[in-house]
Amino acid sequence: MNAYTGSHTSFIPKIAWIILSTVLSIKNELKCNFRVISKWFLTAIFALMTVFPGGHVYAAADAKNPGAASGTNWTTPANIADGVNATYASYNNTTQDYLKVTNFKFSISSAATINGITVTRKGHGDGVTAAKRQYAIGLTKDGAALAGTAKTGVDLPQDTDDVVSTGTTTDLWGTTWSTADINSSNFGIIFYDNDTTSDAIYFDSVTITVSYTGPSVNILEVTYDFTSFALNASSVAVSSLTVTNTGDVTETFYIRAATNTAGSPWTVSADSANGFNKLALRGGFHPSQPGDSQFGAEDVINETSQVSQTEAGGGRYTINGDETGVDVPAGAKRALWLRFTMPLETSTTDQQQVKVTVAAQQ
After folding, report:
1. Residue 33: exposed, middle, or buried by beta-carbon count in 10 A (0-12, 13-18, 19+)?
2. Cα torsion for 285, 286, 292, 297, to the nearest 10°?
3. Of 41-55, 287-301, 332-346, where does the model show the most confidence?
4. What is the Cα–Cα distance from 76 to 65, expressed in whole angstroms?
5. Mean pLDDT for the chain?
6. Region 182-201 average pLDDT
7. Tell me, what DSSP letter sits at residue 292?
8. What is the residue extent of each domain of the chain?
9. What is the per-residue pLDDT across 21-45, written as a single tens digit (0 to 9) for each?
10. pLDDT single digits (tens) 318-327
11. Which pLDDT value is given to residue 293?
12. 182's torsion region: left (phi>0), alpha (psi -120 to 50) or beta?
């Protein structure tokens, strides 16, 4: 910050507010008396937001590469996860030791329904007969033991790599899977030799694709103008976000928020109190614009995903119960209003981003 010398000193930091694919810009001007005046305006440039929580509507598939691999009696086991072409994890032993490939870094919504898992590998063997180039493959939840049923007698070509997938979009490999299982760093693949001969098998790379389904939600394009207001001031948006259940099952909406700028000193208040570098955000569903005082402490949006409630059930994210984010029928719309409170003070004039996420669950 430039020191005040009696002349007018100003600079224009920018703060961007992202609601899913919606961008909000802020211009701050530091006046001689060091009070920050903020002009907020928000325009949705990519209005559609699709969420991938559980249900029976939205079909999705995530493919990930591993971050770690290990195996007793395997030569350079980590090479299967190094992302380098033609560097191999190889095995030339008779004891059928496991190659354990993990750390796929999935982040599927906790409400998702897992439908199937497909493993795609690249590799070859050097055995003269096909039986000596076969391997077994299974999945693991804990990074050590097989989960469900391994698939045995899977062929490798001789000398030259090929790419082959095992499993399907509906294959659960003989067990059940939660999203916690899939998102765990211990989730992964186990390879082992199909027989006890000493002919070598080689794996260059592997990918897991997880297929799942879930409801979807849409944010209708809107334009916001919060008008000018100072640090430690609050404002309610002049127009709402229209949140639509675009699936074909009843959904309940969850909401959370977080700063989205690398290295930002700003945080989102866990309660309704703003502070130094700490903003406060509240939200509520209502057919028309509510007044500033109609947002209660129960309407706080923070970094923890919180479920909408009915008025009788606690009143979270509803102004007076006329409209809620609970049990929203398929195709129905809800108007979400936001009340933003600037930090009490701020140490930065850099561009900031805050991301608000609306999710859905049956």
Report:
1. exposed
2. -40
3. 287-301
4. 17
5. 80
6. 95
7. G
8. 14-51+217-361, 58-214
9. 333 222 222 222 223 333 332 222 2
10. 999 999 999 9
11. 94
12. alpha
Which residue(s) pair with 345 in the sheet?
276
pLDDT of residue 198: 84
In degrees rounded to 5, what are phi and psi of residue 132?
Answer: -85, 0
Burial 81-116 (b: 16+ CB within 10 A, else e): bbeeeeebbbbeeeeebbbbbbbbebebbebbbbbb
Q: Are 341 and 234 in contact (CB under 8 A)?
A: yes
Domain at 58-214, CATH class: mainly beta
Q: What is the rounded distance in angstroms from the CA atom of residue 276 to the CA atom of residue 266?
A: 8
Q: Do 336 and 285 meet the contact criterion of CB atoms below 8 Å apart? A: yes
Which residue's structure tokens are 């984010």? 325
User: Which tokens belong to 329?
Assistant: 């029928």
The amino acid sitting at 278 is: K
Distance, first Cα to last Cα, the chain: 49
From residue 2, how far is each of 5, 28, 33, 137, 276 by CA, in Å? 9, 15, 13, 63, 20
Helices (H) and strands (E) in the chain, counts: 1, 24
Q: What is the pLDDT of residue 262?
A: 78
* Predicted pLDDT at 221: 42
Cα(336)–Cα(219) distance, rounded to whole angstroms?
10
pLDDT for position 148 = 97
The residue ranking higher by pLDDT, 223 or 56, is 223
Residue 71 to residues 97, 112, 202: CA-CA distances in angstroms? 7, 32, 13
